[in-house]
């Protein structure tokens, strides 16, 4: 396995095997080329795993489960702590690999994401001993208590947009609770997680954490269909999430889904401020080219301020530098691949074709900028019923929709099959909280556009998902099952 990453030109990662049963595994099906969106070069290859390799990985995880489940929780926690500390000196390298493979800018995204991985392992390391049970006061001569037991082998599937963060928030809590895991990484961005997993292996028994590579239709389907998987945990598109849930239904396997969004940002008339414009930009996840499930991509601005607020927004966006993801001066990098790039451009074209639509910033690139780069794009005159305002674009495109009455904006915000995140901008705290309580979303931020914090039970309403991650409660609900034990104390 070549893991050397040269930081200048001619970057090569090479062929990287899957991590299965504590060893490297390749696939009979050959290799998948992984292209960097940054320059189109093939930076390396990963095995094209399918049902055969999934079988090997699940069998390894099953074997490992029989002893990992009984490792004292304190020791499991210690293994996670050791992983956290072992990752620290490797973070810069891992962040660079991630920028190379998915095009996210190093300074504004992947460095912070890699640092989050360490926090995440530390956090769940500390929670490993918190899987407490309950006692039920049935009678004085009966002891009724519960235990939280691991489920078994977790089948996890992650996408490419924040692979390090999304891998860590599944691996750390699942393993802390005594489960083992087979994780399929995205074909677009497999290397950073494989690098992280290589470090994990040095602190875990063989088979506890297995990382497989391959296409969704082959490796992904084989994983969700496998009879020895006891839990499915998926992050990605709503379409595939539905498919995962169907597969879970066939065998009554519990499913956690973190899916898409079309999150509203509601700007009240008192919020016509520069710092709020900056917050709206952060909430839109422009620094990740909008490729985030929590992107606040529907901007509802009160009609009294819509013109001046939008002007400020357009001016602030003009200051962002779209460039090479590895360049320290780049604020934004590249869209992950040609398919996503074409999809984003076609949404812009479709939206601008609607009567009344106005391009206020950005637009379809002229091809002169960096490869697969789309400038931050703002479209005004949009109606909440258009495709542009209903479907997840997963690109740096925000639509501006004016509003007049509080009831009206709340009902427009809620008129979506998604319900992941929302942002409310007002310094009138009563109004802001009232709105936050009425918005149908799993996570509402007031006057900030921050990322998820450990401890928050993060997850979606409606078709944005099922289950919660990032927290103690999420860990207990997603990765343990409760057993009650009732003991007659007399006979
Ligand atoms: P996707 O949902 O197809 O892929 C995510 C993961 O699922 C990948 O590892 C993929 O290999 C796997 N997968 C695909 N089909 C599968 C199947 N039938 N069974 C099991 N696993 C399968 O997302 P994709 O194609 O990368 O992006 C398409 C759109 O999905 C984006 O434009 C965006 O709208 C949305 N998306 C949302 C994400 C989020 O975090 N909410 C993340 C990635 C994509
Ligand atoms: Mg897909």
Write the layout of secondary structure elements.
Layout: E1 14-15, E2 18-20, E3 23-25, E4 31-35, E5 42-47, H1 51-68, H2 73-87, H3 91-102, H4 106-127, E6 135-139, E7 142-150, E8 153-157, H5 163-176, E9 180-184, H6 191-201, E10 209-212, H7 216-225, E11 231-235, H8 238-251, E12 255-258, E13 264-267, H9 274-283, E14 298-302, H10 306-318, H11 338-352, E15 358-361, E16 377-380, H12 387-390, E17 397-403, H13 406-414, E18 418-419, E19 421-425, H14 429-438, E20 443-446, E21 461-462, E22 465-466, H15 472-479, E23 480-488
Parallel strand pairs: 1-5, 8-9, 8-11, 9-10, 11-12, 13-14, 13-19, 14-17, 16-17, 19-20
Antiparallel strand pairs: 2-3, 4-5, 6-7, 7-23, 12-22, 15-16, 18-21
Helix pairs in contact: 1-7, 2-4, 3-4, 3-6, 4-5, 9-10
The protein binds 1,4-dihydronicotinamide adenine dinucleotide and magnesium ion.
The site of 1,4-dihydronicotinamide adenine dinucleotide has 26 residues, from helix 7, helix 8 and helix 11.
GO molecular function, one term: oxidoreductase activity, acting on the aldehyde or oxo group of donors, NAD or NADP as acceptor
Pfam families: Aldedh (PF00171)
Organism: Rhodococcus qingshengii
Walk me through this protein's architecture:
This protein is an alpha/beta fold. The chain is 38% helix and 21% strand. The chain has helices at 51-68, 73-87, 91-102, 106-127, 163-176, 191-201, 216-225, 238-251, 274-283, 306-318, 338-352, 387-390, 406-414, 429-438, 472-479, and strands spanning 14-15, 18-20, 23-25, 31-35, 42-47, 135-139, 142-150, 153-157, 180-184, 209-212, 231-235, 255-258, 264-267, 298-302, 358-361, 377-380, 397-403, 418-419, 421-425, 443-446, 461-462, 465-466, 480-488. The strands form six sheets. It has a seven-stranded mixed beta sheet with strand order 15-16-17-14-13-19-20, sandwiched between helices. Strands 10-9-8-11-12-22 form a six-stranded mixed beta sheet, sandwiched between helices. Strands 1-5-4 form a three-stranded mixed beta sheet, with no helix packed on it. The longest helix is centred in the first third of the chain and has 22 residues, at 106-127. The termini are far apart. 54% of the residues are buried. The structure holds 1,4-dihydronicotinamide adenine dinucleotide and magnesium ion. 1,4-dihydronicotinamide adenine dinucleotide is lined by residues 157-161, 184, 186-187, 215-217, 220-221, 224, 235-237, 240, 243, 259-260, 293, 340, 343, 392, 394.
């Amino acid at each position: 396995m070549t893991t050397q990453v040269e930081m200048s030109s001619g970057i090569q990662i090479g062929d990287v095997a899957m991590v299965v049963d504590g060893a490297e595994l390749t696939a009979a099906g050959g290799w998948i080329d992984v292209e960097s969106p940054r320059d189109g070069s093939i930076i390396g290859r990963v095995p094209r795993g399918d049902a055969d390799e999934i079988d090997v990985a699940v069998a390894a995880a099953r074997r490992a489960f029989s002893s990992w489940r009984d490792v004292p929780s304190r020791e499991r926690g210690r293994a996670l702590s050791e992983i956290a500390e072992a990752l620290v000196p490797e973070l810069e390298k891992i962040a660079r690999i991630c920028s190379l493979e998915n095009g996210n800018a190093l300074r504004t995204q992947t460095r912070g994401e890699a640092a989050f991985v360490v926090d995440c392992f530390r956090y769940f390391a500390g929670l490993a001993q918190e899987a407490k049970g309950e006692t039920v006061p049935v009678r004085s001569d009966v002891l009724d208590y519960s235990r939280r037991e691991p489920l078994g082998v977790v089948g996890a599937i992650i996408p490419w947009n924040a692979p390090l963060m999304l891998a860590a928030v599944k691996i750390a809590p699942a393993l802390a609770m005594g489960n083992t895991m087979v994780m399929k990484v995205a074909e677009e961005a497999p290397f950073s997680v494989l690098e992280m997993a290589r470090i994990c292996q040095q602190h875990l028994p063989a088979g506890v954490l297995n990382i497989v590579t391959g296409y969704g239709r082959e490796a992904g389907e084989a994983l969700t269909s496998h009879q020895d998987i006891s839990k499915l945990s998926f992050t990605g598109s709503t379409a595939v999430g539905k498919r995962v849930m169907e597969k879970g239904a066939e065998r009554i396997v519990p499913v956690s889904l973190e899916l898409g969004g079309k999150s509203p940002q509601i700007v009240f008339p008192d919020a016509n401020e520069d710092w709020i414009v900056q917050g709206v930009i952060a909430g839109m996840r422009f620094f990740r080219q909008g490729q985030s499930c929590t992107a606040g991509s529907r901007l509802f601005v009160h009609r009294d301020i819509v013109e001046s607020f939008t002007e400020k927004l357009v001016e602030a966006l003009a200051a962002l530098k779209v460039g090479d993801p590895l360049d320290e001066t780049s604020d934004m990098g590249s869209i992950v691949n040609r398919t996503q790039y074409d999809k984003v451009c076609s949404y812009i074209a479709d939206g601008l074709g609607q009567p009344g639509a106005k391009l206020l910033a950005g637009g379809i690139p002229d091809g002169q900028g960096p490869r697969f780069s789309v400038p931050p794009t703002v479209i005004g005159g949009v109606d909440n019923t258009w495709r542009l305002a209903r479907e997840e674009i997963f690109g740096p495109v925000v639509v501006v929709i004016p509003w007049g009455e509080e009831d009206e904006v709340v009902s427009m915000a809620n008129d979506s099959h998604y319900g992941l995140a929302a942002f409310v901008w007002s310094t009138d705290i009563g109004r802001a909280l009232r709105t936050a309580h009425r918005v149908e979303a799993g996570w509402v931020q007031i006057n900030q556009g921050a990322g998820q914090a450990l401890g928050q039970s993060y997850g979606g309403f409606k078709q944005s998902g099922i289950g919660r991650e990032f927290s103690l409660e999420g860990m207990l609900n997603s990765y343990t099952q409760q057993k009650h034990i009732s003991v007659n104390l007399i006979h």
